[in-house]
Amino acid sequence: MALSEGLLYSKEHEWLRVEGEFGIVGITDYAQNSLGDIVYVELPRAGKQIAQFGGIGVVESVKAVSDLFSPISGEVLEVNAALEGDPAAVNRDPYGEGWLLKVKLKDADETKNLLSARDYEKLIAE
Amino acid sequence: MPASSSDRTASPLIFELGQEGRANRYVEEGKPLQSFLPANVLRDELPLPDNTELDVVRHFTRLSQRTFGIDLGFYPLGSCTMKYNPRINDALANLREFADLHPFAPDELAQGALQVMHELERSFCSLFGMAAFSLNPAAGAQAELGALLIAKKYFKDRGETQRDKVIVPDTAHGTNPASATMCGFKVISLRSDAHGRVDPAEIRKVLGPDTAVCMMTNPNTLGLFEERIHEVADAVHEAGGLMYYDGANANALMGNARPGDMGFDLMHLNTHKTFTIPHGGGGAGHGPLGVAEHLAEYLPTPYVVKDGETYRLDFDRPKSIGPMRSFWSNFAHAVRALAYLYANGAEGLVKVSQYAVLNANYLRVKIAEFLETPYSEICRHEFVASAQALKKETGVRALDIAKALLDRGFMAPTIYFPLIVPECLMIEPTETESKETLDEFVAALRDIVATAKRDPQALFDAPVTTVVGRVDETRAARQPDLRWTPPSASKRT
Amino acid sequence: MYTPHTQRDIAQMLAAIGIDSIEKLLAVPEALALRGALDVVPALPEYQIRRRIEQLAKRNAGADCIAFLGGGAYRHYAPPAIAALAMRGEFLTAYTPYQAEVSQGSLQSIYEWQTYICLLTGMELADASVYDGATALAESAIMAINATGRRRLLISRAIHPNYRAVLRTYCEGLDVAIDEIALTQDGTTDLASLASAVASHEYAAAAVQSPNFFGNVDTLDTGALAAVRTSGTVPIAVVAEALSLAALATPASWGAQIVAGEAQSFGVPPAYGGPHVGFIATTNEHVRRIPGRLVGKTVDNAGRPAYVLTLQAREQHIRRERATSNICTNQAHCALIATIYLALLGKTGLRNVAALNLERSRELATAVANAGVKPRFSAPFFNEFAADVGRPARGVLAGLQERGILGGIDLGRWYPEYENCMLMTATELTTSSEIAKVAAALKEVAHARVVV
Question: Chains touching chain A at 3 or more Cβ pairs under 8 angstroms?
Answer without folding.
Answer: B, C
